[in-house]
Amino acid sequence: MTPRFVRYLPILTWGRHYDRSALTNDLVAAVIVTIMLIPQSLAYALLAGLPPEAGLYASIAPILLYAVFGTSRALAVGPVAVVSLLTASAVAQVAEQGTAGYAVAALTLAALSGGFLLLLGVFRLGFLANFLSHPVIAGFITASGILIATSQLKHILGVEGGGHTLIDMVSALVSHAGQVNPVTVLIGVTATAFLFWVRKGVKPLLVRMGAGPRLADIATKAGPVAAVVATTFAVWAFGLAERGVSVVGEVPQALPPLTLPGYAPDLIRQLAIPAILISIIGFVESISVAQTLAAKKRQRIDPNQELIGLGAANLGAAFTGGYPVTGGFSRSVVNFDAGAETPAAGAFTAIGLAVAALALTPLVYYLPNATLAATIVVAVLSLVDFAILKKTWSYSRADFAAVAATILLTLTLGVEIGVASGVILSIALHLYKTSKPHVAEVGLVPGTNHFRNIHRHDVTTDPEVLALRVDESLYFVNARFLEDLIQDRVVDGAALRHVILMCSAVNEIDYSALESLEAINLRLRDLGVGLHLSEVKGPVMDRLKTTHFLDQLNGRVFLSQYDAWTALAKPNDPAKAAE
Amino acid sequence: MTPRFVRYLPILTWGRHYDRSALTNDLVAAVIVTIMLIPQSLAYALLAGLPPEAGLYASIAPILLYAVFGTSRALAVGPVAVVSLLTASAVAQVAEQGTAGYAVAALTLAALSGGFLLLLGVFRLGFLANFLSHPVIAGFITASGILIATSQLKHILGVEGGGHTLIDMVSALVSHAGQVNPVTVLIGVTATAFLFWVRKGVKPLLVRMGAGPRLADIATKAGPVAAVVATTFAVWAFGLAERGVSVVGEVPQALPPLTLPGYAPDLIRQLAIPAILISIIGFVESISVAQTLAAKKRQRIDPNQELIGLGAANLGAAFTGGYPVTGGFSRSVVNFDAGAETPAAGAFTAIGLAVAALALTPLVYYLPNATLAATIVVAVLSLVDFAILKKTWSYSRADFAAVAATILLTLTLGVEIGVASGVILSIALHLYKTSKPHVAEVGLVPGTNHFRNIHRHDVTTDPEVLALRVDESLYFVNARFLEDLIQDRVVDGAALRHVILMCSAVNEIDYSALESLEAINLRLRDLGVGLHLSEVKGPVMDRLKTTHFLDQLNGRVFLSQYDAWTALAKPNDPAKAAE
């Protein structure tokens, strides 16, 4: 057994030490998670525009495959809200909801997403996910929460609806406002209110009644199950389905079927970009949860192996009647809090859900869609966080711009354009910031060997010496900036004889910046001004030594700025220099 | 007269101090540049696929307008090789060469380019040109040189040709190889050989004969005029035009006409992207030349005003029968070396060219196109510089990749895709490099208060203290990298009690990195490990103070790494720590 083989199969690591205590803990966690997942899976399938059983199927094979290939001990894989929304948005572009083509497109999306994740993992390209900055993710999640909640209003009101942007959804609701079904509204609003209360009020109540906070937490998660049971019973007992309340209806009593994703080139071309987007967003959500949980137990997550685990899970979903999945936040936290020790807990959850799919599906015939919609609305409203706007505004205008643009464009133009614009804007703003680096003119703090900004401190300077501290790596985007800056300073300073670049914060000098330095050196030489460097970092110096720049330098390289100053300056006292 | 008004009209600055000595110098320079520009203008028009007079016209109004709006004292504006190639490539996509539509498209391209440059200048967006890294420019110029030289082979061989990629051009030449005209080849090859000799051999010869090196330089530039005169005379005297030698033919005897660029939305849409590309590449070429020449005389160039100057010049070209122009390298250097002191030299050159357009055009009737092609080939081969591949390879693989990709893609897929790919690749490589920053574990150099990399130096460490120096700004692309790194180190170091991040080279912490630091802080706190910061820069600290991060920090902020070490470490000696 080679080490490489083991790396790709984390199950071989934890599986060898599996014991009775771990088994007991995993079983308990599995029971709790299974109960929570049954209504959640049905609800997210509804959100994705798929038949309810697709949600169950998407939770079975993927969990098993992740247990074999994933590195997190507590992550629970399955349908999640944001990915379900993205699926609905992508699949609606190629097929009509309710058709066979729609389900096939969802399978294809899962297959493409799985393949893409596997590729990223095998080629160790997990760092690509870093291009989604936190502000873009936060903005996207908030906007998605609003879109998802709005999309469920049609079920709570019992009217037709549609659309994938906020404006489309609201106008669809308004134009169908006449269809509102009072009984559906009663069920939907009651369920929503109940679930909000469970979320906020039950835990303190249980704690006051003597329950441990962990138990109280888990009981809170059972709220949706209670709502499902109560409203299903009500619909059955009072015959509300005949009064226009839309119910889940017939769900096949079966294990996940063997399915084939579509392979028409046209379909694949149309779904490729959404699949990449779903993969990356799903990966970012999953890895954040996995890392947070692993950190609590000093466990290690391998991001590239996680890609392989999630890739396998999505391929599993594609071939067993599911749709794109990822590691979900709430289910993973419940799994962790319930005591899951290894991925075997996930495997037991899968068995639990398989039993549910086989035996319990007739029980949800009378489950009102309004209740499922209520569970979604309450779950996703916790994703909505406008505080991020205030936080980023006070911290950095660039980050604020990224959040605001992502929220606005996701709501108005849809999820794909929203995220893509956010990513491009973040990169552009970062490049813009580094294109005008902070460059401080420094002087000697009298009585020390420290150098500080002449505009902030009382320091000693010399009109013949210009000492500039560059607070940024030098690369093509800011190379010309330095040329312009030095040129301007040289034109102003007729007495100037030496320019010293203090490079303590220069982590890289790329080839463009090297050429700019060469140009600066030549221009200064023509004017009889020396160019000197100080405090150049080891790796930067190593690289400069491979070139002729140091030979041609019309000046010297000093280890410290103080050495440079001692060698070159005939200092004035600060009062005189300020004249 | 407001200062803002003066800023937009640099002519008001130099014009007020204009005197007789400057006039004399400017007149001498103008005569020399005019003689050089006549054949060059005709040749570049040929390269752009336009009638020869377009080259003359493109040198008249643009020079005058640049003299009013530009900030360089020595820049000579007009048709240049690379921009002519880009024009040919762009215009060929919308019109057939030789048609009226072709000339109108060239005017439109100049108008769009002028408008775009003006916009960039007025909104002070000149920094956008920095996104073209030096490797991308170098690769593009080299590839363009090859493409241009190849495109002229058809004139030297006297065959038909075409295409805008290397493969297309070569296969067009091969398929027409049967048409080769021996007389044309004789003229073309002789002219090429002569011009190469002039370039390499004449200057040493003249210097040996007692001429000053500056005069010898300028005489070298007259080589093309000599070739033009000799071959024109030969064609006329021996009736070679009747033997199949293609000649320039009738050129109207006229001042630049008043022309209107096209304004069809379709045409503008098709030419918009090429116009942006031409603007930026032209601007980069022009500003480099202008800055190099200005530096020699401690003069100042305002890049944003340069955009306005070049914008006006291109608009001038669009309305007077020209095509896109920019500040050319060789003509500007000749202008400078010939003693031009102010933009008035350019104005006199324009008058000289206007006289040529009015009076001298009948003289070029028998000028063979092969001679013009020879002047182009010899001029552009000096642009081809494969040494850049070797230089960047030894300096930085990332820069090498940018050069190589730009050369390869420009040659095989055309100029637009080549440059665009180069820019995207440079940005991606930069982001990739900063996504995995250099992080050094540091220890105390015994007997000092300096800290150095534990893998490079014999330093004192403490197994309870992990001191990491981060050599990069922290932002979204590398935020997760730091999380992963610290997580890994914490899992490995069971004895660990303190993590110190030494931030002397951290020039920025964006919101994503702030959230990562918060996550790291919480995870370390859960494990009873402290997180401390040292040597945080002023602007970074100012920003952190606006957040709650410092309040929640499970550790302290130290001014220096030495303070942190003194407060936290119980040092082992290096020998023991290495165990």
Q: What's this entry about, in short?
A:
The structure is a homodimer of 579-residue chains. Chain A is 64% helix and 5% strand. With 579 residues, chain A is mainly alpha-helical.
The tally of structural domains of chain A comes to: 2
Tally the helices of chain A: what do you get?
A: 25
Major interchain interface with per-chain residue totals: A-B, 75 and 76 residues
Strand content range of chain A: 5-15%
Q: What coarse outline of chain A follows from CA principal-axis ratios?
A: elongated
Helix fraction bin of chain A = 55-70%
Which structural class is indicated by helix and strand composition of chain A?
A: mainly alpha
Radius of gyration of chain A: 31 Å
Q: What strand line-up does the widest sheet of chain A have?
A: 4-3-5-6-7-8
Query: What is the CA–CA distance across the termini of chain A?
Result: 77 Å
Subcellular location (chains A, B): Membrane
Membrane topology (chains A, B): Multi-pass membrane protein
InterPro entries (chains A, B): SLC26A/SulP_dom (IPR011547), SLC26A/SulP_fam (IPR001902), STAS_dom (IPR002645), STAS_dom_sf (IPR036513)
Organism (chains A, B): Arenibacterium halophilum
